[in-house]
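Q: what sequence does this backbone want?
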């Protein structure tokens, strides 16, 4: 039963990390995007670099790559507006998932 609690807390932490990353990209735009892009290792060779890339993908990939896709397809301001609309929906989805996890853990008695 403790495993379920640990998994629930882990998923909640990932949701919070994605929300924070999304908000920082939404507020600071390209500055945070270029700063944060340095955390990703291009062409990883060692196991450590591959592990860091996996952690990067798990914790921050959804908002990061959504921002990139909007910037490639649209002008700067249109991409920023589309990203903010997407971010609103993404945050709403994350909150709903967090509430479901909380209710699930409460039903189990945690």
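A:
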């Amino acid at each position: 039963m403790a495993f379920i609690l640990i998994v629930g807390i882990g998923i909640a932490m990932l949701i919070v990390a994605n929300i924070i990353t999304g908000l920082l990209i939404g507020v600071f735009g390209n500055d945070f995007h270029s700063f944060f892009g340095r955390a990703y290792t291009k062409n990883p060779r060692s196991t450590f670099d591959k592990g860091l890339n996996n952690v990067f993908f798990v914790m921050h990939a959804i908002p990061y790559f959504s921002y990139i896709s909007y910037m490639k397809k649209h002008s700067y301001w249109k991409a920023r507006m589309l990203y903010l609309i997407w971010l609103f929906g993404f945050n709403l989805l994350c909150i709903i998932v967090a509430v479901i996890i909380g209710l699930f853990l409460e039903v189990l008695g945690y």
